[in-house]
Amino acid sequence: MTVTHHPAPATAPRTGLWLIGARGSVATTALAGAAAVAAGLHPPTGMVTETAPFDAAALPPLDSLVLGGHDTASVPLPKRAETLAAAGVLPHGLPTALRAELAAAEERIRPGAGPEDPRGTEELIAGYAADLAAFARAHGLARTVVVNVASTEPAADAGAPLPPSSLYAAAALRADCGYVNFTPSTGLRHPRLADAARTASVPHAGRDGKTGQTLLRSVLAPMFAQRALTVRAWSGSNLLGGGDGAALADPAAAAAKNAGKARVLADTLGAVPEGEVHIDDVPAMGEWKTAWDHVAFDGFLGSRMILQTIWQGCDSALAAPLVLDLARLVARCHERGLAGPVDGLGFFFKDPDSGPADLSAQWMALLELAGRLAADGAPPGGGGGARNDDASPAARDGR
Amino acid sequence: MTVTHHPAPATAPRTGLWLIGARGSVATTALAGAAAVAAGLHPPTGMVTETAPFDAAALPPLDSLVLGGHDTASVPLPKRAETLAAAGVLPHGLPTALRAELAAAEERIRPGAGPEDPRGTEELIAGYAADLAAFARAHGLARTVVVNVASTEPAADAGAPLPPSSLYAAAALRADCGYVNFTPSTGLRHPRLADAARTASVPHAGRDGKTGQTLLRSVLAPMFAQRALTVRAWSGSNLLGGGDGAALADPAAAAAKNAGKARVLADTLGAVPEGEVHIDDVPAMGEWKTAWDHVAFDGFLGSRMILQTIWQGCDSALAAPLVLDLARLVARCHERGLAGPVDGLGFFFKDPDSGPADLSAQWMALLELAGRLAADGAPPGGGGGARNDDASPAARDGR
Amino acid sequence: MTVTHHPAPATAPRTGLWLIGARGSVATTALAGAAAVAAGLHPPTGMVTETAPFDAAALPPLDSLVLGGHDTASVPLPKRAETLAAAGVLPHGLPTALRAELAAAEERIRPGAGPEDPRGTEELIAGYAADLAAFARAHGLARTVVVNVASTEPAADAGAPLPPSSLYAAAALRADCGYVNFTPSTGLRHPRLADAARTASVPHAGRDGKTGQTLLRSVLAPMFAQRALTVRAWSGSNLLGGGDGAALADPAAAAAKNAGKARVLADTLGAVPEGEVHIDDVPAMGEWKTAWDHVAFDGFLGSRMILQTIWQGCDSALAAPLVLDLARLVARCHERGLAGPVDGLGFFFKDPDSGPADLSAQWMALLELAGRLAADGAPPGGGGGARNDDASPAARDGR
Amino acid sequence: MTVTHHPAPATAPRTGLWLIGARGSVATTALAGAAAVAAGLHPPTGMVTETAPFDAAALPPLDSLVLGGHDTASVPLPKRAETLAAAGVLPHGLPTALRAELAAAEERIRPGAGPEDPRGTEELIAGYAADLAAFARAHGLARTVVVNVASTEPAADAGAPLPPSSLYAAAALRADCGYVNFTPSTGLRHPRLADAARTASVPHAGRDGKTGQTLLRSVLAPMFAQRALTVRAWSGSNLLGGGDGAALADPAAAAAKNAGKARVLADTLGAVPEGEVHIDDVPAMGEWKTAWDHVAFDGFLGSRMILQTIWQGCDSALAAPLVLDLARLVARCHERGLAGPVDGLGFFFKDPDSGPADLSAQWMALLELAGRLAADGAPPGGGGGARNDDASPAARDGR
Questions:
Q1: What tens digit of pLDDT does each residue of A119-165 get?
Q2: What is the pLDDT of residues A226-248, one digit of tens each?
Q3: Are C31 and C62 members of one domain?
Q4: Is D149 inside a domain boundary?
Q5: Domain assignment of residue C174, given as a range
Q6: Nearest residue on chain B to A218, alpha-carbon basis
Q7: B295 and B198 in a common domain
Q8: How confident is the model at residue A251 (pLDDT cuts 50, 70, 90)?
Q9: Which residue in B68, B299, C49, C56 is a FRET match for C71, CA 20 to 30 A apart?
Q10: What CATH number corresponds to the domain at position B49?
Q11: What is the pLDDT of residue B11?
């Protein structure tokens, strides 16, 4: 296990993780979790970069991360953490144990611009970039990765001003920071940012973290394809509360999210089957989510069969470790001089910049990236990257 | 699509497919399905070997297969086919459309030995081998593959006489036939057959076709492992009628089957989680099966999450196309001179002779085998075997 | 069992059952089923009026029913029956066995008015009433019950002309026929028909047959209420193909249907919990329907619990026997001189004219009605109507 | 609402609630919950006797209950409560808030006899009865109800000595205490206690609290029967951790529990359908339980349909309020002079002493009992007991 549970030596470079939506559920969970895992209070369950295949990738240690961010919300981090503990997302007692860390991070949050802000596009980008530069200076950071975990915004109209997610993305590039869009919002995918994204001198990745229903689809759809079973209809319903439920009750926001969900089926099945996906705001669900999928498929001689799945998870707890994974990977890419869209990160996204939609193919691509990131350029695990060998997650320490 | 829908030219070699349990549901469905697909009455849904990656593998055409077999049951094939049509497994009208083929196949079935048969082990093996030789002679077969699809027998006691499945397996080797064990029964895995299996001059493969719950597990378990999510308990219940339900109501037979189911979890998760698997005989289910799985797993910071799956399928319709796939692949291995346990067929089995337990890794291994089988030794699809390229099932004709 | 399996004696009065939507799935299944059960080809599974509590209610025998109806569709009944058999709704072979009955019924179907029909409201009502009178004359019917089983129409605008369902309803009253609205369409519930409905000289009942998800809700919601468990959210998704799926894909039609679904929760829980209901048109489902319900409820000390239900059924097969039940009950009400909305039929409807929403209370009310209908006015079962006595369905013949 | 949230007046009689298994999950939850609800910290969710129909039944107020009990376990109540709070059964903070109450109750627990206890049957009964008498004296109790909530014991052999549950039951009768058996253990159902149970001068009730899967079955099975739908197979799987999971992993204990589960189907369907029930010990589930049910049923013309239910609950949180309900009801029965098995409590039990198996019929019987218990003998709600009137739970205060 690469977590050392000790402060990084004074000479170790420090890496910034700047969260857009820094007082939200995902950011709070990421922050509390990074501190808790670094302190040895909890095992790194759910963190892909803490498994054996990444041992040699020279990723920044968890305890070298410094977290800050922008937010338009005003509930302070320590209070937000208490709310998450009451909802069962964070362990009881953790907000108290991490009181100092939460308060320190709260000090590092800068206000985002609300809808009434009089500043124009250029002013806003410049202001955000200045915030990022100040953050790096104040904490002596070797580099910073900006990760968007803010509420999903409605699908952008190409003619309108840049949406907030795109302003933050542009600021990241301007401030020479890596960038990750963990939401379905536009971010770097705006037509007016296409050139900047392609020619960026920093690495970036997106879009829309793959945490539940689509994660499942990315292993089930290839199974149907490989077995030559014809999927006739794939229908889904998602029930979720929290801020995400309310945000996605906006049909425009849901449309952005559903586009990502459909892509995995189109790419792996060769065609989009019948069926819709619903996202319902159910405040009584709190931070928990239930996703039901119903797959009607044909077998031999037209026999009709059905697979149903029910996924009951906590989105913040699923997303937070992946946010940490992505920040570490993109920071290391930056350190190794990679720039532009990073190949090999589709494993984390519903709607990746490139690459296959099949989770296992994405996993292989991620392992290749880990190999490229290794200090000596050797494949991960120090050997041939053989999948059922020491590159397997099952082989990681402590399993 | 390699199916020609025309009789093979007179000069084409014919391949025998000899089914142990030739009057059972799987065998009847395989026989009716092979005829229906070869005649162009139905698309080859569920047949892996009819997808694009196998186009160049030079497998025996479906209409070059001649089916026969052993059985101890006496209900003739045409009547069994009618029963399956009434149960919704075969399309209505198909038994009538294939009356001639079913009657011809019925003529090629030889009686298996019942429990009261006075013959000893050696006599039985010799008798079965003679049946195989006669079958080849009568139909001018280039080669024959024996596939066991008989009801699961109780786990064998090493000290006892060879169980029936092992007698048939030994006969296959003696008659120089390829052999596939599609059931959890002992077959070639008997200690007294270990040497013969290892040094066989013919290819063989097993054990226990992966058609439903375990197929799902072989894609879901790697997902949990790759995402570093800790599976705490994996519990399952299977409800099935038909002959299989009754056979598996015998705890000894269920034990054989459950061993295979557990293996996929152990191999992919690194440890067997808590949880049991039940197999219930529910005659009201007829030929249909429902499998419920409940996976309790931990996410970040110990958050508790649950995945449930419900699979409703028809085992015969799932198994039959795979039986045809295996027969074609093993026959081609035989033709190419491969002998002993065939690498690359784990994709089809719960308890494969070798190789990974993860379905996507098994798929890659199967594609490699397809490449080795190609007439010119080139990789499948005529190119680099790139997974998201023309080797993808989504790229196959007609999708 | 009251079914005699013999033609009614020549002197027995004949009862007409006039179906609006007579060539649809429900009507075709009702017609084929009535003939099949009357002929002894199938047991009366799903027919409430064939259970013991109705033995003494003097309902018209199944074989005394004469079926006819209106439809705007042109696919003839025998062909429609073949389609339903291919879809697994009707048993294979039944359309052939009932060829004569289907052809005869087809002759008794009259065209309904399409949207382009130039006739005005009064003309249409008069025309439909004339069709009903001609039907009664031609077959010597003692009385006729009109049952609406046509596709759901969009919710009516009070200012607009009467919608088709209301025209047929008005025609039924004018022709002195009993009337049942088995759909969520307006029917007699139009404000301009309120007086006519209240003062009708014939019995009528509605609205929206309760066949699946709402049936379940009408027993589950009372359970939560009686156990003092607080339902926080009740969410549902329905996947259905057939004509019904397409009709309900129209949001206006879905709104009519969902109003009925919500009512059962409001009435039994005392408040409508959070949660939406989706109805998806999934043509691949054919005549089959899947309904998933997710109920989040609180237990003692605020503990969070969840109940999920998955109902997989065939709407036509669920609706058809209830249509026959209602026709027989309303015909007998007519014979006994009951007029206006019939108390005691809420058991069959999502949105009944009156009475409780709890299925068991509706069942008690239905048993009371059966008692009132008995020839001698005595309660059903010849005794005190005690629920766990001989009035129990479990006590009916042959169970 | 009858809860006053104030201490009972000094002159109010106090009622004892003596729990067999007083340090277990159910008992601890009941104790903490009674205190929390009486103090106004939580609403009485899940307590049937706190709904409107019981307003006039003159039940002992919650804050007049004094809890004590026997247990062979040694983990003290305050520590057990902490464990339950960590598992999410009790709200965080509640054990601290109720520290004084928990400590006081811990003082009132007496040791039960372990398997090595040298005392004979008569000595044990006398000792337990003496404990009950001392409890009543010490706290000035008007009367006491003994409730068995101990782990399920293996099915008793009629020839063997009385099992522990029967010893405690006999002691209750001897000490003139009401008795409730909330478990599937033998209790008063032992042949050698049959005479004592029948001629008891105190009221008693049992057996096996109905909290989850069987509760559902008791509303679903009547639905199938009333709709004349033929249930062909009813299969179930239960996954549970905690002490109950381990106890029920013993096949003999499971047999006792499953007998109760089967009874509700036999009584309401008229016959026991195919299908098994499994109870799996899954320690990872902690205090939570998942029950999956699969019901295969036939509709009209033999169409095959399926209902599945998934119940995810916490048994302690479901059982505890019912334990308080039963204690209050049986205490009031005792006060009113009722003796022997109490009619009208089948609502609470899987395997009731008498009465119907259908939940709604049981609810009607319970309402009748509530009427008999009212101070003036009038029906509940002060009126005709009309079900959809003011006797409805939906009409209770505050809902």
A1: 999 999 999 999 999 999 999 999 999 999 999 998 767 778 899 99
A2: 999 999 999 999 999 876 767 77
A3: yes
A4: yes
A5: 14-209+317-382
A6: B223
A7: no
A8: confident
A9: C49
A10: 3.40.50.720
A11: 61
Is residue A71 domain-shared with residue A39, that is, in the same domain?
yes
Contact: D88, A92; criterion CB under 8 Å: no
Last residue of a domain, one of B314, B343, B373: B314
Instruction: Kindly give the parts of chain D with pLDDT less than 70.
Output: 1-11, 156, 158, 243, 245, 256-257, 260, 376-399
Q: Are residues D292 and D151 in the same domain?
A: no
Residue B114 is predicted with a pLDDT of 86
Instruction: Please list the residues that pair with C281 across neighbouring strands.
Output: C240
Best of A2, A3, A226, A298 to substitute, by most chain B Cβ atoms within 10 angstroms, is A226
The sign of the CA dihedral D84, D86, D92, D93 is positive
Write down the pLDDT at residue D377: 52
- Using an 8 Å CB-CB cutoff, list chain B residues near C310: 310
In this structure, the answer to whether residues C247 and C171 fall within a common structural domain is no
Closest-CA residue of B relative to C308 is B308
Which residue does chain B place closest to A231, by CA atoms? B45
Same domain, A364 and A246: no
Which residue numbers of D have CB closer than 8 Å to A's CBs?
86, 88, 92, 310
Of D46, D219, D363, the CB nearest to C229: D46
Q: What confidence category does residue C251 fall into, taking pLDDT thresholds of 50, 70 and 90?
A: confident
- Residue in chain D closest to B276 (alpha carbons) equals D280
Query: What's the number of domains chain B is made of?
Result: 2
Residue D390 placed within a domain: no
Tell me the pLDDT band of B251, cut-offs 50, 70 and 90.
Answer: confident
Strand partners, C236: C277, C293
Predicted pLDDT at C394? 42
Highest mean pLDDT among A21-30, B243-252, C269-278 belongs to: A21-30
Mean pLDDT, all residues of chain A: 89
Q: Which residues on neighbouring strands pair with residue C297, listed in sequence order?
A: C231, C305
Taking each helix axis from N to C end, the angle separating D359-373 and D213-226, rounded to the nearest 10 degrees, works out to 110
Question: Least CB-CB distance to A294: which of C275, C283, C290?
Answer: C290
Is residue B47 situated within a structural domain?
yes
Distance from CA of C55 to the nearest CA of B (A): 30
Query: Whose CA is closest to C156, among C259, C236, C246, C244?
Result: C259
**Assembly ipTM:** 0.91
We report the CATH number of the domain holding residue B269 as 3.30.360.10
The yes-or-no verdict on residue B21 having pLDDT over 60 is yes
Q: Cβ contact (<8 Å) for A237 and C237?
A: yes
The pLDDT of residue C8 is 47
Interhelix angle C359-373/D213-226, rounded to 10 degrees, is 30
pLDDT at B154: 83
Question: What backbone phi and psi angles, to 5 degrees, belong to A386?
Answer: -65, 130
Whole-number Å distance between alpha carbons of C327 and C316: 16
- Cβ A282–C237 below 8 Å, yes or no? no
**Does the model's pTM come out above 0.90?**
yes
Q: Per-residue confidence at B259, pLDDT binned at 50, 70, 90?
A: confident
Q: Is the dihedral of CA D229, D231, D237, D243 positive or negative?
A: positive
Do B205 and B217 reside in the same domain of the chain?
Answer: no
Q: Which residues contact D360 (CB under 8 A, 6 or more apart)?
A: C219, C222, C358, C359, C360, C361, D219, D222
A280: which chain C residues are within 8 Å (Cβ-Cβ)? 235, 275-276
B322 assigned to some structural domain: yes
Instruction: Suggest the residue from D92, D290, D311 to mutate for an interface test with chain A (most A CBs closer than 10 A).
Output: D92
Give, to the nearest 10 degrees, the angle between helix C164-174 and helix C121-139.
50
Cβ contacts (< 8 Å) between A88 and chain D: which residues? 88
Q: Do B226 and A269 touch (CB under 8 A)?
A: no
* DSSP 8-state code for residue A274: B
Find, in chain C, the residue whose alpha carbon is nearest to that of D389.
C356
Helices A213-226 and B213-226: crossing angle in degrees, nearest 10, is 130
Of the three residues C314, C330, C347, the one that is the final residue of a domain is C314
Domain shared by A267 and A360, yes or no? no
Separation between Cα atoms, residue B15 and residue A84, nearest integer Å:
65
